[in-house]
Amino acid sequence: MNLTKLNVSLEEFEIGLSGAVPDRSDWSEPAMDRGILEFVSLFSGLVLKYGGRIVHGSHPTFTPIILRQARLHAGKRSRKPVTLVMSELWAADLPADRIRSLTDVAELIITKKIGPGSASDNETRNQSLTAMRRVLVDTQNIMVAVGGKLHSGDGKRPGVGEEMDLARRKKVPRFLVAGLGGYARKLARDLTPDSLGNGLPRRENVRLFRTDDVAACVNVVFDHLALSKSLRKAARQPIKWNPDLGRIVDHRDGKVDSASECILRTEGVAGMSMQDGTQNLL
Fold first, then answer.
1. Does residue 17 contact residue 144 with C-beta atoms inside 8 Å?
2. What is the rounded distance in angstroms from the CA atom of residue 154 to the CA atom of residue 200?
3. Which helix (H) or strand (E) holds 239?
4. Which of 144, 68, 160, 153 shows the shortest CA–CA distance to 106?
5. What are the two backbone dihedrals, phi and then psi, of residue 95, each rounded to the nearest 5 degrees?
6. What is the pTM for the complete model shown?
7. What gap in Å lies between CA 3 and CA 127, rounded to an integer?
8. Is it the case that residue 3 has pLDDT exceeding 60?
9. How confident is the model at residue 268 (pLDDT cuts 50, 70, 90)?
10. What is the pLDDT of residues 54-113, one digit of tens each?
11. Closest alpha carbon to 134 in 108, 99, 102, 109
């Protein structure tokens, strides 16, 4: 892959990066975080450099890297290059300056807390994150999963598993970078490459399932995004986020998606506005 003279554009792609660095107790090899974060950095930098957008669920292990790559590589464009989706379960405690630090290069979508508890209450946490992930999947047309917390026996729903399942139901093409470990590796044991709908040859999906070569993983996914006409066709989602309306809309008939309305925040925050790049604030 020649990074200096590529004549390609990824402007059609809103690429969801699903994952997180696993808890250290679940690392299967030393410095597991290094490979996962290197993938996030290299891949998001390339996507942004070539006109694509990155969508993420605001996990603190990935978000700073994505934002840094946006500041370095996104250039000038009419729309901010990153979309972050966050539940009010966490957003409610963010000070205004922290929100501003997130939204210089990112749109921020806030979804409602579901349930009476706090973030330490598993039922409220799981329900609130499911609501957030439903909106998250509606803001992307490709998903790339890497790493991910296992949440073995702690009662918390693994995000990579739920996001991949929601994307499957919407027929969003998915890539599973499982060789770098985390929940993605566990998920690869239960999936067949053909079920991902990404159009890669089987051997290339199997490579993503097995290899811990970060550069190879980035090359496989990026080259397919750049060259595959069938992937561009598969990525066309009829029901998706409309940034101008701040709503999820069925673009076939222009109707607002009623299922998402009950979980999106629509009130504003003092001192913040749509011009700040923040959508649906608390």
1. yes
2. 35
3. strand 239-242
4. 68
5. -70, 160
6. 0.92
7. 42
8. no
9. very low
10. 999 999 999 999 999 999 999 889 999 999 999 999 999 899 898 988 999 999 999 999
11. 109
For the record, the structure tokens of 104 come out as 């210089």
pLDDT at res. 30: 84
Q: What is residue 278's predicted lDDT score, i.e. its pLDDT?
A: 52
Amino acid identity at 51: G
Contacts of 8-12 with C-beta under 8 Å, sequence gap 24+, read 8/50, 8/226, 8/227, 9/50, 9/51, 10/47, 10/50, 10/51, 10/52, 10/225, 10/226, 11/51, 11/52, 12/52, 12/141, 12/232, 12/235
Q: Is 259 helix (H, G, I), strand (E, B) or coil?
A: helix
Return d(Cα 246, Cα 130) in angstroms, integer. 20
Domain ranges of the chain: 14-279
Sequence-ordered list of residues with C-beta below 8 angstroms from that of 115, at least 6 positions apart, any chain: 121, 123, 124, 127, 128
Is 14-279 CATH 3.40.190.10? no
Tokens of 100: 């501003």
Type of residue at 280:
N
Tell me: pLDDT of 203 over 60: yes
Reported confidence tier of residue 272, pLDDT bands at 50, 70, 90: very low
User: What are the residues whose beta carbons fall under 8 Å from the beta carbon of 229, sequence distance 6 or more?
Assistant: none
Element containing residue 147 per DSSP (H, E): strand 142-147
**Which of 84, 85, 139 is closest to 249 using CA atoms?**
139
